[in-house]
Amino acid sequence: MAGRWTDITWQGRSARAWVPDGVSHDDFEVPVLVARRTEQAGAAVRRADERLPGAWEPIVRMLLRSEGIASSDIEGIRAPIEDVVLAEIDDDVADDTAAWIADNLAVVKSAIRAAGRTSLSVSVLNRWHRRLMRHSPLPARLKGRFRDAQGWIGGTSPLDAVYVPPPAPLIGNLMTDLVEFANRDDLDPVTHAALLHAQFETIHPYADGNGRIGRVLISWILARRLAVSLPPPVSVLIARDPGGYLSGLLRYREGEPDAFVNWFADIVTRAGNASVVLGEQIDELLAGWARTVDALRADAVARRLVNLLPEQPVLNAAIVATRLGVSERAARGALGSLADRGILQPVRAPGSHAGRPRSWWSASDLLDLVVGWAG
Questions:
Q1: Domain span including residue 303
Q2: Measured by CB atoms within 10 angstroms of the end CB, which terminus of the chain is less buried, N or C?
Q3: Which tens digit of pLDDT belongs to each residue from 116-151?
């Protein structure tokens, strides 16, 4: 097994925790068949990046939203996508759950943007964690810091848990080793991503949020090692095969990393292929919208507003006025025009009340594509 058991005491009773071996200097040579799978996965990621439609930025934003939503959904954190988009705009008009998911999305975006220029460090991980847990009930002293007590996964305590990670005093050295491993560049990128994620989850360094930070690491390293602008939303496919995921992690901890790498490579390949399909669906929808407003005069605010929707699929007159440089009256007219054409639908913000009469609108067809992909 790739590690050792260590004895711990929990409320006066004996239990055992698992301490993984360090990985920073291991070679990790995978069998030929697994290596072929990882090469195919890397090619699928690059192909997806290359085949994003010409107007790729809107597609990127939608794919990022699907990743953030799916990663939170794995942890049982769910909210309507309109609420999540509202939380991206303004915490005051969203409930805490939607804001928490929006925080996950913000961390994913930040990690991908920094992947090509910033090495991983403990401080970077802690910054991600602090941002991720901003709206969580986790005590403030544990936000952006490693856990200071024994953790466990499944069960009610370390005595009946499915998995008991290393004791808190060992986390610092294990994470220093993991960061060194993350910054290597001599491994196949997909193998590297799989092993980095599995080792992070095995250490389980935080009191909460380990799964989401572990999946952010996947996005970070695929973007970094494959030099792509957007890695596919792997969380979506992980969420669809929890049994395969948990089985793979177990085999990794039992000294069979090849099994997890093989499973992971398949997930990445399918995510890459599916993201191309989603990109084509979004591009087709945007083209349909353009045809719908084609009869409007070229300088019509409604026509310009269509181009804003992929970036801002939930909005109000104030946002439209600011982004397009028009009056709120003109913005309201444009919103109504798109609503009449079935492009926008009214939506009620969770934080709406008598003192906040502002009307919100949603490009529901666009958001439904993301929900369908992430769900």
A1: 279-374
A2: N
A3: 898 999 999 999 999 999 999 999 999 999 999 999
